[in-house]
Amino acid sequence: MRKIYVVEGIRDEEILKKIDPNIFTIKTNGFSFDNELIEKLIKLEKEYEIVLILDPDYPGEKIRRELAANLKNPINIFIPQDKAISKNQKKVGLEHVSLDDLVKILEKEIIFDKNKGNLNTSDLITLGLTGNVDSEKKRLIITNHYYLPKSNAKRLLNYLNNMNISYKEIEEVLNES
């Protein structure tokens, strides 16, 4: 099945087309998209896989949540924030990612499973992902491993359950680090 990459702006489209000139993209024009775009994506979802690759900032995550809530099963690609910082260190966005990094990032597609995992807050405490001095560092290990955005414990729990990642898998990632 062909893919449609949903991005925020024209610069994002341009950088993706440097990797593959035939890539099919749709831009949201930032958060100013309307129901027409959502309806278009819903129709396209019948013939294409919808891939959300949005900026690793608050507006990008807000757009992702809004679109994902209206789509059946979009693929998510998260951009590590440290890879998306502009040269002047003032802006964050897909358009600032190097081509080499972008090729690697595009391989890290995540589909949120409708049959959610069963991790809970107690599991995060036991794994040291919350409630400890080094919990933030451990969460960063997990988010980097799965190409997720930097997350607090509650948000990380939601991501891990949506991805149906098991306690054992998390334990293995932490033990490898």
Structure description:
By secondary structure, the chain is of the alpha/beta class. The chain has helices at residues 10-19, 35-44, 58-70, 99-106, 121-126, 135-145, 153-162, 167-176, and strands at residues 3-7, 24-27, 49-53, 75-77, 110-111. It has 8 helices and 5 strands. A 5-stranded mixed sheet has the order 2-1-3-4-5. Helix 1 (10-19) links the parallel strand 1 (3-7) and strand 2 (24-27). The protein is globular and about 45 Å long. The mean pLDDT is 91.
Second-tier CATH architecture of the largest domain: 3-Layer(aba) Sandwich
Q: What order do the helices and strands follow? A: EHEHEHEHEHHHH
Summing up helix and strand content along with how strands pair, one would put the structural category as alpha/beta
What kind of sheet is the major sheet? 5 strands, mixed
How many individual domains?
A: 2
Strand order of the largest sheet: 2-1-3-4-5
> Terminal Cα separation, in Å?
36 Å
CATH topology of the largest domain: Dna Topoisomerase Vi A Subunit, Chain: A, domain 2
**Radius of gyration of CA atoms, rounded to a whole number:** 17 Å
Discrete helix count = 8
Low-confidence residue ranges: none
**Proportion in β-strands:** 5-15%
Q: According to CATH, what is the class of the largest domain? A: Alpha Beta
Rough outline:
globular
